[in-house]
Amino acid sequence: MTDRVTSIAGRPPQPVSGALHVCATVERGAFRLDADVGAEPGEVVGVLGPNGAGKSTLLRAIAGLTPVTTGRIVLGEDVLDDADRGIFRRPEQRPVGVVFQNYRLFPHLTVRANVAFAARCRGMRRGPAGHVADGWLRRLALTDFADRKPAQLSGGQAQRVALARALAADPDLLLLDEPLAALDVQTHAEVQGELRAHLADFPGPTLFVTHDPIEALLLASRIVILEQGLITQQGTPTEITSRPRTPYVARLVGMNLYAGHASAGVVALDGGGVLVAPDAADGRVLVALRPSALTVYAEEPHASSARNIWPASITALAPLGDRIRLTAVGAQTVFADVTASAVAELQLIPGRPVWLTAKATDLVAYPEPMAG
Amino acid sequence: MVSPAAARRIRRDRAPGRTRPPMLLAAPALIGFGFLVLPLLALLVRAPWRGLGRLLSDSQVLTALRLSLECASAATAASLVLGVPLAWVLARVRFPGLALVRALVTLPLVLPPVVGGVALLMALGRNGIVGRYLDEWFGVTLPFTTAGVIVAETFVAMPFLVVTVEGALRSSDLGLEEAAATLGASRITVFGRVTLPLIGPSVLAGAVLCWARALGEFGATITFAGNYPGTTRTLTLQVYNTLETDPQAAIALGLVLLLVAVLVLAALRDRWLRAGSAP
Prior knowledge:
By secondary structure, chain A is α+β, with helices and mostly antiparallel strands. Chain A folds into two domains: 241 residues, Rossmann fold; 111 residues, CATH 2.40.50.100. A six-stranded mixed sheet of chain A has the order 7-8-9-3-10-11, with helices on both faces. In chain B, 77% of the residues lie in helices and 0% in strands. In chain B, α8 packs across α10. The longest helix of chain B has 34 residues. The radius of gyration of chain B is 24 Å and the shape is globular.
């Protein structure tokens, strides 16, 4: 008896499920999503983008809740969508588990019945389906809440139930919509670690969407940036944070980002100003600069060894952790992090003219991606 | 600083519904209320309380009462079987002509029941466009039978159920149905395990409303099914019949129907009587 439950709930070694490949467009009114993303088995891909970028549309298309306009969605050997061949698998026929943003637990069912739902849909009787559910409830430490109704759960518990319910359907692909957004700040931190562990246990590909960069950086092994229906950057969290490719990503990861034309180590920036970046290859480049790599002077520094020195005027100051982030406008807008004592010492107030310096070695220059 | 009396006055003025209404509204409101309550009051005042037991235990009355309850219940059952799926289609399926279909479904709500009865005769009567074949092929005749009573009551009462259930379906959470689909539930499973349980209270309310309407049905019934004691003479028809021969009995029957109405209202109090609440 127990063995049987484990065999369903405990996931013994089994053939690794296939990778997810999405190459499709979805048009909804004036909005168009053009996505080319994939996820390997065991990989956790975070799709990060601002509101209205098409993240939910992407998720819904993969789940079969929104039909694709053109292109294909393939999971392993399974063709879920193929617009050209008129293939569309209905959501209930896709081996795709979804954890929705507000969990969408069935309010009229107990936690156990929620988790047993998928098994019941496959025609399993109430008893055996309940045993399957109990296995998942044990794994996610939900046994004590089995007889509760969703309304009696905390946010973190409800999220675990939603995850258990999706996993109990034995999906080949797991989708999560803003997995932590509905939680309060304290629960957020608590659930994050657990969720990471549970996602790591899932053998198939996992794809989640979020607008929260912290969530993406903490949960994802690879991040895909989606802006206005287009994928603008993909990479590991480290790649994304060190080499942002769009102003959106730069803002998310708190970097200064400038586009320009490099020639012999000197970058002429679009919109004016030059930066000395010896590593920059000739041609169109992006230059990233950490706000903490900048030094602020009240007078023009003559003794500085930094190769980049330019005047600017402070426009805003905002506390950021134990630092203060100031915004200064010169030839370009720049963010610089300074200590509170520096602010007091140099009397940095909005409107004050200052000099900024940056060492050439702190500039990260890389070729600008093709437009589109 | 505001004096306590002034503070009380402010509080009183601010509390909604506590202000003294202007006479121009209060007077017609009072007359309107009196107009609605007076007949009910008269029924209670003139009721033959002493002879009530004898009047209501009359075999004709008991037959009519049983017939009424049976027919109204059968009509409600038919309305549930046909009306809930109809409501689902109206609420969930997009098709050209949807607005027209919805208008046609709700038409019996405003159609004079007598006209409904005539229309039913044209459709299902012995020479009706469908009734002719029912008679020829199956030997089934609906007019002037108990089944005819059920048909007439269903025609008049089903829209009440459809409208109530459709409203509930429209305001129910589609997200839950999507979640069920991603868990492998077919559309019929979603309907049975998620949609229906969630709108259960509304279905019940619609059924009670439908049943009450069927019980009170008169015009369509008498036109389509006639007025034969034992087979088609329901309680309302009995009231109409006895009013000339035995007014006391008519009043007694009226009391019974009034009691039923009060019970229905009590059953639906949470839905319809809470002012300002959405149905």
